[in-house]
Amino acid sequence: MRASxxxxxxLLGTATLxxxxxxxxxxxxxxxxxxxxxxxxxxxxRAQTALINAKPGSIIEFAAGKFxxxxxxxxxxxxxxxxxxxxxxxxxxxxxxxxxxxGGEGLRIKCPENITIEDLAVEDCKGDAVKAQDTKKVIFRxxxxxxxxxxxxxxxxxxxxxxxxxxxxxxxxxxxxxxDAGIYVGQSENIIxxxxxxxxxxxxxxxxxSVNADVYENTATDNTGGILVFSLPDxxxxxxxxxxxxxxxxVENNHDNFAPKGNIVATVPPGTGMMxxxxxxxxxxxxxxxxxxxxxxxxxxxLINQKPIKDDKYDPYCESIYVHDNKFVNNGEAPAGELATIxxxxxxxxxxxxxxxxxxxxxxxxxxxxxxxxxLRLRNNGDADFANFDGGAFTPANVFxxxxxxxxxxxxxxxxxxxxxxxxxxxxxx
Length: 430
What we know:
The structure is a single chain. The chain is mostly beta strands. The two termini are 45 Å apart. It has a domain at 1-32. 10% of the residues lie in helices and 36% in strands. The strands form two sheets. It has a 20-stranded parallel sheet that branches. The protein has an eleven-stranded parallel sheet with strand order 4-7-9-11-14-17-20-23-26-29-31.
């Protein structure tokens, strides 16, 4: 009886035989929910079929090996599913042969809730590597997104790309070669990006139009810009606030900007460690920011782009920015890009570690100043130097009127403290 039972289990492939062939009901159930996909000529069909047939609790498990796919793999309208491999250097989903009209993404997820992607690599997609949309609690763990031919304008825009999601965790991941952002979270809430590495992207890590984000213990290197926190107009979600960027290593982000023309990140100066644009309530602390050739931290209004804003609900200013206890070393030694051309004659070189355009919402000023809680505040940043370069002087009207910028290098007017932001909490995530 025992031998017959074990034979059935073996043939079905739904459980791992244990010593004495004893199984608990929970082990049978878990094993029955696993669909294993091996590499081979029909892997595309088998993988997509498994994703179509996925039920709550399903695990789609890719074996070690290289999988050659020609079209997007998609998972839709199901919750509580895990897609996993054997490790980001062992299970490689390659989209080098992806054909036109078959979807640009490698993996496309649009599910109600609880989706996990882990322990695999997605390479050489025509578009984004892994996109998750409209999902509550999406986890990327030990995922590598890479364009193996090196940084090029024709690479896909985003590596890991959750958008319009809630409760996002990206941990121990790697993103290389994206023509926009390697790790990008947009229009989302409750976000943790930690212990990940972004290199050779235009933007290493970008948080855009999102609320409540913790970005920590990451390494951003050899990108055009290391870590970006942006808010942009004309998007369904307007808010960009409550972001903590801390305990990161942000070094040597000096790669040429290879974003397609017209893309907003095409304006990021090569050599930018961190950049804030039109975001509120950002706390930056305990970061190592070194050898970024244009500047360590650039804080600007969207107005610096001198583009018209048609979105009447959009706030283009940075407010409530608190920068403290960071280590800035050797930034600004060789400024590059359009900003360097504009500011080089005014600031000289090297550029300061921390640069601020000084633009403020005139509707919020009281006696010429923002209320204390909405100001830029700097504290305990070592030998970091600073400049408010008066970006408002570079608007077409002011340039035409020959208004000279009022550059302020004395950090004393910006020294102080703001209230620290609360940590981001995601249920079930430590």
